[in-house]
Design brief:
The chain is of the alpha+beta class and 712 residues long. The chain folds into five domains: 1-68 and 325-457, Nucleic acid-binding proteins (OB fold (Dihydrolipoamide Acetyltransferase, E2P)); 79-310, D-amino Acid Aminotransferase, Chain A, domain 1; 465-530, no CATH class; 534-626, 5' to 3' exonuclease, C-terminal subdomain (DNA polymerase, domain 1), CATH 1.10.150; 642-708, BRCT domain (Rossmann fold), CATH 3.40.50. 35% of the residues lie in helices and 20% in strands. β24 (678-681), α24 and β25 form a beta-alpha-beta unit.
Length: 712
């Protein structure tokens, strides 16, 4: 498989392109049982956004596009809604990352450095995640991860795996969901492929083989495949299973589930890294595929306190195995233009195999990176710049999309000259300027720049925005450049008027090469299917700068309706100078937990532009954003209330306090305004406490907070 990132207009578009490929790969893999990528290439794409966004804050808003877990359940199987979501894990790649992970856990818990904190460490099995539900100790349902919320009912197929018990012993709870990984041993995989070769159908690797075998419509086919299972987690239970991660997994073993013998308890950073090195050294000799080691906080009460982010637990992470490196020649540098006007360089490489995958491009991040300067202004690569013709070291850090790690000066040709970053946009010729304090140079063309306009449309229809099937990269470019007005799409609203314009036109889309009656019918159906869409998706799709999927969800959960957000944004008055705090609407947006002034300013400025309001009004004529439902415990005494924490909290960290409040259904704000319902003040509270007192807002201390929420 050749991993060739297309020559595209900027890193933002590269991220969207990778997401499109992922959607196609998910459908092929999860729905059709016909993988189009190797396991390594799929993982490359899956971590693509993280690799690019880690290099520059400019692209951080796009990182959350990977928050969708797995794929939509196949219509070929019944659906199972997980009582407890099946989330994925964050990844770390270096010892320093592990140090940061442990430090973050301690910081969140306010756990002193000299106090013992035990973690479990176990191999990360490369298979298919599975949830097995037992009621009255009998297996009743088996479901895949699916999208994390809803999975596919594969109960009949799971019953054919001999290692999975159909009945649990008497000491098991009345309800328990045992979770783990369905996998295939390497020797069984090779034997199966030898048999399958006679039919001309073979699997790419053991992971794909396990997934394809499990998702057969005929359980007897699954029975003929050598599938196995490791148990390592759980979902809903009718009673507590134990007090620690380690003890519960051992209990699974007592119930008859296979558990991994390499799982161990680690009492220090040194123990964790030593166990990682041990498993890494043993990796090649193991009978099954692994791609890292998973660390989890052992105590369940601490896991409960740490809680979850949007797609992963705070108390666990996966330490992936080291990067692959290779040496090749840089043959060219392409400049790509994104929807925010950012100019981003991409290296064109002489094809080289890195870790079994052929790569032809690598990210160059920004013009400073080419010059040998890091984000902090300090030299990188000992100050060596990158030039066309250079021999370069290419790395796939954590098996992600490649980056140029270093330059081999001995291989630099005599004619190689320093690269001069363009000061004009390659798409429209407008000046490209770099503002003070930014690493990114931007096109000033705005609405006249076709690269930005097309990219905004691609973003609008992308998977985590409106998610309109049939409007991919090629189709958007076709409609954008169409000469016939009946076919032209220049704004999001044009997508939803396309069908009506077609009906009035002599030019019919189905008569144009590349389309056809069936595909056109499916396209119009997909468009009509998105005339009602979740508020957060709608907001994310507007492409407001700094509003990635995570920030869109934060705003949606606070305002609950798009109209409420718009009213606040249009009435907000931003601070005009030092000491000015803006009006109440500005304070409300700026005070939302996780938002802050930069994001709030982007939202307010978006709605301050006439052409943006006109585009939104036209879109709202065609699309209805569905109100967000309140999250958390809606029956809790603080549900729906806006809470501000201030001062030095003594019984929990600030992060833990915010997470607790949100779990209880409260809205956490960073500043006090007239809309604040409650202020929790610790020792040393200053201006926020005074402001709350002046406004007559209820103020309580930390003990009163715990008493109010029933956690005293």
């Amino acid at each position: 498989m050749t991993l060739d990132v297309p020559v595209i207009e900027d890193i933002s578009r590269a991220i969207v392109a990778a997401q499109t490929l992922l959607a196609e790969a998910d459908e092929a893999y999860y729905i059709n049982d016909a993988p189009i990528f190797s396991d390594a290439v799929y993982d490359d794409l899956r971590r693509f956004v993280g690799a690019l966004t880690s290099a520059s804050q400019e692209f951080s808003e796009l990182a959350s596009r990977l928050e969708r877990i797995g794929a939509r359940p196949s219509p070929a199987f019944g659906q199972v809604v997980h009582a407890v979501p099946m989330l994925s894990l964050d990844n770390v790649f270096t010892d320093e990352d592990v140090v940061d992970f442990i430090a973050g856990v301690r910081r969140f818990l306010t756990w002193p450095a000299d106090r013992e904190l035990i973690f479990t460490a176990e191999p990360k099995i490369d298979g298919l995640s599975m949830s097995l539900r037992y009621e009255n100790r009998r297996l009743v349902t088996a479901a895949t991860r699916g999208d994390g919320t809803t999975g596919e009912n594969v109960t009949a197929n799971i019953r054919t795996i001999r290692e999975i018990p159909h009945q649990l012993p008497k000491d098991a709870p009345d309800v328990v969901e045992v979770r783990g990984e369905v996998y295939m041993r390497r020797d069984d995989f090779f034997a199966l492929n030898q048999r399958m070769a006679e039919t001309g159908q073979v699997f790419a690797n053991p992971r794909n083989s396990a997934a394809g075998s499990l998702r057969q419509k005929d359980p007897e086919v699954t029975r003929s495949r050598p599938l196995r299972f490791f148990a390592y987690a759980w979902g809903e239970t009718s009673e507590p299973l134990g007090e620690t991660q380690y003890d519960i997994v051992q209990r699974f073993g007592d119930w008859g589930f296979p558990i991994n013998s390499l799982m161990d308890r680690c009492r220090s950073l040194e123990d964790i890294l030593a166990h990682y090195r041990s498993i890494e050294a043993e990796r090649a000799e193991l009978p099954y595929d692994i791609d890292g080691v998973v660390y989890k906080v052992d105590r369940l009460d601490l896991q409960e306190r740490l809680g979850f982010r949007s797609r992963s637990p705070r108390w666990a992470t996966a330490h992936k195995f080291p990067a692959e490196k290779a040496t090749t020649v840089l043959t060219g540098i392409d400049i790509q233009v994104g929807r925010t006007g950012a100019l981003t360089p991409v290296a064109r490489l002489r094809p080289v195999t890195v870790g079994g995958v052929v790569v032809t491009n690598a990210t160059l991040h920004n013009e400073d990176y080419i010059r040998g300067i890091g984000n902090n202004g300090q030299p990188i690569r000992e100050g060596r710049d990158i030039r066309i013709g250079d021999t370069v070291v290419v790395q796939r850090a954590g098996d992600v999309i490649p980056q140029i790690l270093d330059v081999v000066l001995e291989g630099r040709p005599a004619h190689a000259v320093p690269y001069v970053f363009p000061d004009r946009c390659p798409a429209c010729g407008s000046h490209a300027v770099r503002e003070e304090g930014e690493a990114v140079r931007r096109c000033t063309g705005g609405l006249i720049c076709p690269a930005q306009a097309v990219e905004r449309l691609r973003h609008f229809v992308s998977r985590n925005a409106l998610d309109i099937e049939g409007l991919g990269e090629k189709q958007i470019e076709f409609f954008f450049n169409a000469e016939d007005p009946a076919l032209r799409i220049r704004s999001p609203a044009d997508i939803f008027t396309l069908k009506a314009r077609q009906e009035r036109s002599l030019t019919k889309l189905e008569n144009i090469e590349g389309f056809g009656a069936v595909s056109v019918r499916k396209l119009f159906a997909a468009i009509d299917d998105r005339r009602q869409v979740e508020f957060s998706r709608f907001l994310f799709g507007l492409g407001i700068r700094h509003i990635g999927e995570t920030n869109a969800k934060r705003l949606a959960r606070h305002f609950l309706s798009f109209s409420a957000l718009r009213t606040a944004a249009e009435s907000a008055v931003m601070p005009q100078g030092k000491g000015d705090i803006g009006n109440a609407a500005w304070q409300e947006i700026n005070g939302i937990n996780g938002i802050g002034a930069v994001v709030a300013e982007a939202v307010v400025e978006f709605f301050a532009e006439d052409h943006n309001r006109e585009a939104v009004d036209a879109l709202l004529e065609e699309v209805t954003p569905v109100d967000e439902q309140p999250v958390g415990e809606v029956s809790s005494p603080v549900a729906g209330k806006t809470v501000v924490f201030t001062g030095a909290l003594e019984k929990m960290s600030r992060d833990e306090a915010k997470a607790m409040a949100e779990k209880l259904g409260a809205k956490v704000a960073g500043s006090v305004s007239k809309k604040t319902d409650l202020v929790v003040a610790g020792p040393g509270a200053g201006s926020k406490l005074k402001q709350a007192t002046d406004l007559g807002i209820e103020v309580i201390d930390e003990d009163a907070w715990f008493e109010r929420v029933g956690r005293g």
